[in-house]
Amino acid sequence: MFFGILGETRAWYGDGTEVPLGGPARRSLLALLLIRPGEVVSTDRLADAVDPDGAVSAHAVQSQMSRLRKALGSGAVIEQAGAGYRILVAPDDVDAGRFERLAQAGRAALRAGDAAGALPPLREALGLWRGPALAGLAEGETAGPAAARLEEHRLGALEDRIEAECRTGDPRAVVPELRELVGRHPLRERLVGLLMRALFAECGPAAALVVFEETRRRLAEELGADPSAELVSLHQELLSAAPSPGPAAPPAQLTAFVGRADEVTELARLLRVARLVTLIGPGGVGKTRLSVEVAGLAAVDVCFVELAPLRDAAALPQVLSSALGLRENGLGTGAGGQSPVDRLVAALSDRPLLLVLDNCEHVIEETAALAARLLAVCPRLRVLATSREPLGITGENLWQVKPLDDAAAVRLFTDRARAVRRGFTADPEVVGRICAALDNLPLAIELAAARVRTLDVHDLAGRLDDRLGVAARGSRTADERHRTLRAVVAWSWDLLSEDEQRAARRFTVFAGGATAEAAPRVCATDDETLESLVDKSLLEVAGGRYRMLETIAAYGAERLDEADERADAEHAHTQWLLELLRTADPHLRRAEQLEWLPVLAAEHGNLLAAVRRSVRAGERETGLKLLAHAANHLWIRGVSGSVAPHAIALLEGADGDSLDEEEYVLCVLLAASGAAGRPVWQRHRASAEKALAAAWADGRTGRHPVAPLLWMLRDASGPDPRSAFALVSSLRDCAEPWTRATARYMSGFGPLGEGDTASAERAFVTAVEGFRSLGDRWGTALVLDALAGLAGGRGDLARAVELTDEALVLTEQIGALEDSADLLVNRGDHRLGPDPASARADYDRAMALARRAGSSTGLAAALRGLGDTALLDGDLTEAERLYTEALEQVDPHWIRSVGTRVRTFAGLGRVAEARGDRTTARTRYREAGEAAVAMGPDTLGALRLLGLPEHVVESVSEACRQR
């Protein structure tokens, strides 16, 4: 039998038919018993529920109870106990009990970051409601509070459901519902916050800010209060909101889309039911353009990944991470051993996304393996690939992209010809012959149409037929599509002047395009020649950069080898890049870093190409120079792992004594930033440390100021970092101001580890003044975080939050998602005691950022923080689950994870202690103490600095002494 009190009191048999309960008196008695099944309700309270005026006697209650027992029959037992009655049914057999269980499960999933998993239980819980709780039951000292409690839980579950829907779908869809709810509950700040976020998604910050102002005014007028810290924080976030960097969008198209309209519609329909669709066909047939048009109809976010510039298949995961906007590491050191594939999985595990992988054929095996892995573990992901051959994995839907039909081919030629010659007209039959000779391939047609600027269409038809005839008599072993397209490119190439051909073939050494300043220098040409190549469709201009189509670049590379110019062109490319890196490097430690970081980011493909060439040619010295001058921006941007394999290759067989000191050191650091770099670090650490000391010894100023700081950050987790600490600390009076600031920053950790927080703070304050005077946001954020930790450790939580807020502004300016997540967790730790709700909001936001960044370390820290909130709420089961999941995510070998491990072990110890399990508690506290050793010899001071309660500090200390 199932009972309902979420609405009018009712009961149902197991087959769903309703139990005839009788009049309102019996329903009131049953409702009162069902509020807390199994608990005794006094006769007086039962009488009060039937008639609050006191007209019902105990005998009348007994009589009504007898009738109620008869109505329920064997479906439920009502027994008299002492001076009252109780009903013996399971909590889940009452809709209120089932509601609370489901609502709690949904909230737990939401807090754990599983918004999709939270929705089913929350929707089921809310579906149990049929009207107001305990409807028809007279107000009394039992019924009134119980009804209010249930209605409050209902509203909380409704808020959880809306938040989960906002996370998993389009927040704009819940705006009408939220407006209605806020109208009924204008002072409920969580509802107001949800409405503000939904309005921001719908129409930007203006409407959301109006809602905040109305709420602020209402709170002041009706309660004499200010908005909560969480709502104020959201208000500030909206005030400073800038467009969030999202996945790489499909390239904007400058020409009309001709033909294939039906294919676009059919492919969009196919992608609604299929999770992997591959467009296959010959080069130049229009696969990329078709994928762009299909992506434009997607109902979810789209990430467009151009694989054509990718030369090293091993870098495929990094290319995808870059397109998705994922950082490989934050302001500190590398990604803690987490592989790029793991970061992709973390970022895409519950995200609806269409991933377009364009031009897969040259990395087909690696693309197939990665796509299969992502599709297997990311259920909301869909993939649209373009390739000259299938990926060959289970579930793949192949779509053969064929040449245009005759009518569409003529329209395409005419459209493109009119773009270069106004008023162009031609006999459709002649144009049709040209297109047919080009196999109706869109790329070939566009290249041919560009020639009508200088050639008559009849001359064009004659030349093209002759060129194709020559190409058709070539090697029969070559792929047919290569022969056809090669003829088109060769024909266009042969129409270039000698200077144009030389510039075009030298351009092929670029990877990812070139600026207007770089292209003339590397191509040994002038701006007029490059503009002529653009006019003739051999180059295109997009985003302020020259770019060359893949098929043309492949043909041009062959011509570069044929002319025996590769070595000279590649040397020019390397020298240009080195000069750019040298010029940019000092600016990255000054206020101009925001200007220079995007410049270097655009040349990342060129950097990888140049380093890869150095490795292949055995030019170790050149490779070391490139990496050394690029090291600073690679760490700031969080992409040091992308060069780690090349750094490892450069170090193979290397002898540190025979190499440039600092360049060798930076190469070792970059090699160690990748998942496979730990053995390299262990092998080269001693010699690299010796080289670094030599470069900065006796008052000398090295050429790479970032090297000592990165060395200390990496070596801090080593078995004995004292020598590195001594080296960096000795540079406190260095003439170079940035090095001086970093040395003073690092020198603060010595006294900090020994418990001398006053000396540590003096060092950090001096360091932050140095970084601020230079305008360096990276260094400033590092030191502000350290100062916030000290303020929190001495109990000045307001100052700690203020410093953390300042650091957050800086990390957001440089796009450091992972560091922003880390700072949010730290701010949550500072807020947890005085304002648990705000702390929970910080942890939730940190979890979202960590997932977006694909950072398992950031995710572990956020989970630990949520575990602390659950422990504070007394929910031991939930706290244990969150702590355990945090330990599964955290990397035990990374210095930035030390604090998370200490606090997680301590939290598990507190859970065990609360359950009376002293043995497990001592084990967990001992593990916390062992983890804290990495923070310095003063273990007690380290634990207090982390903000652990004093009794926990003493418990950890005692457990360590009893080892």
What strand order characterises the main sheet?
A: 7-8-9-6-10
* Count, helices: 46
* Approximate helicity band: 55-70%
What general form does the structure show? globular
**Beta-strand proportion:** 5-15%
Mean pLDDT: 85
The number of distinct β-strands equals 13
Taking all Cα atoms into account, the compactness measure Rg is 34 Å
Sheet having the most strands: 5 strands, parallel
Give the end-to-end Cα distance, rounded to a whole number of Å. 56 Å
Structure keywords:
single chain, 963 residues, three-stranded antiparallel β-sheet, five-stranded parallel β-sheet, 46 helices, mainly alpha
Describe the structure.
- With 963 residues, the chain is mainly alpha-helical.
- The chain has 46 helices and 13 strands.
- A five-stranded parallel β-sheet has the order 7-8-9-6-10, sandwiched between helices.
- A hairpin with a 2-residue loop joins strand 12 (540-542) and strand 13.
- Helix 14 packs across helix 40 (836-853), helix 25 (566-584) crosses helix 27 (604-617) and helix 34 runs antiparallel to helix 36.
- The radius of gyration is 34 Å and the shape is globular.
- The two termini are 56 Å apart.
- Mean pLDDT is 85; it is low at 329-337 and 466-484.
